[in-house]
Design a protein that fits this description.
By secondary structure, this protein is of the alpha/beta class. It has a single domain (7-243), classed as 3-Layer(aba) Sandwich (Rossmann fold), CATH 3.40.50.150. Helices cover 37% and strands 21% of the residues.
Length: 251
């Protein structure tokens, strides 16, 4: 990210759009369930970008040795207050971060789309992984069913568009699965597994209202999670589990 960007401002809610919805927090559990079989048991983990620390708390329960790097001092203050005392927080832009040792797991969730130079960061992350280490990469999906409905309604010009509200919140691109795979490959990483998380028929704010009203419950949400494995291109998020350069596995 360029030096001109104010990372303490980009996460602020606007009049028309919240930075994060309750639905976003629910997605954390579904992401970790999707990754469960590929998660290393123990070892050193790195979280890149923490927002207000909800995902940090979940990762800390899995990885006692967890480092979180974040470019917003305000967000680090919020996340540190929620996190267990063993989490190490580093205030740094990703471009300036230089870890002292390699990691067994790196998590970059709903962050790559914010970066000015995403391939360069992915290339650097590849050098931070142990030989058996994995990058768990998740981005919002341009082709989510809810987003395609918005395109059909004329609310968005095309699925991969960056809307004004998204840009104000720091988004610089919107990924579909082919574009995500292309950036992973360009960075020299090996995609061990790719797919989607949670079939998404509604926008985030609509999910929040439907859940709060009781019109949909946990059984409906579980159904959407299971459908996500069948229809990855229609999911809320898409992901790639990546091995360092030279690894033999491919998706």
């Amino acid at each position: 990210m360029t030096a001109q960007r104010d990372l303490n401002r980009e996460f602020a809610d606007t009049e028309d759009r919240k930075y994060a919805y309750d639905f976003d927090y629910r997605m954390h559990a579904y992401m970790l369930r999707t990754f469960e079989a590929k998660l290393p048991r123990g070892g050193r983990a790195l979280e890149m970008g923490c927002f207000e620390g909800e995902f940090t708390r979940r990762l800390a329960a899995i990885f006692p040795d967890l480092t979180t790097v974040e470019g917003s001092s305000d967000l680090i203050d919020i996340a540190r207050a929620k996190a267990p005392p063993g989490v190490t927080f580093v205030l740094s832009r990703f471009e300036d971060f230089e870890p002292a040792a390699k990691f067994d797991a790196v998590f970059l969730t709903h962050t790559l789309e914010h970066l000015d130079e995403p391939v360069e960061l992915l290339r650097r992350i590849g050098t931070w992984l142990t030989p058996s280490g994995r990058l768990f990469l998740v981005v919002p999906n341009a082709n989510a069913a809810s987003r395609q409905i918005a395109v059909a309604m004329g609310l968005i010009s095309h699925p991969t568009a960056v809307t004004p509200g998204e840009f104000e919140h720091g988004h610089r691109r919107t990924y579909d699965l082919p574009a995500l795979k292309a950036h992973v490959a360009e960075a020299g990483l090996v995609a061990v597994e790719t797919g989607g998380v949670f079939f998404k028929p509604f926008a985030n704010f609509q999910f929040d209202k439907l859940i709060a009203s009781g019109l949909i419950g946990e059984d409906y949400l579980e159904g959407c999670f299971k459908l996500g494995a069948l229809y990855p291109d229609l999911c809320a998020s898409i992901y790639a589990i990546c091995a360092p350069p030279g690894a033999g596995e491919t998706a």
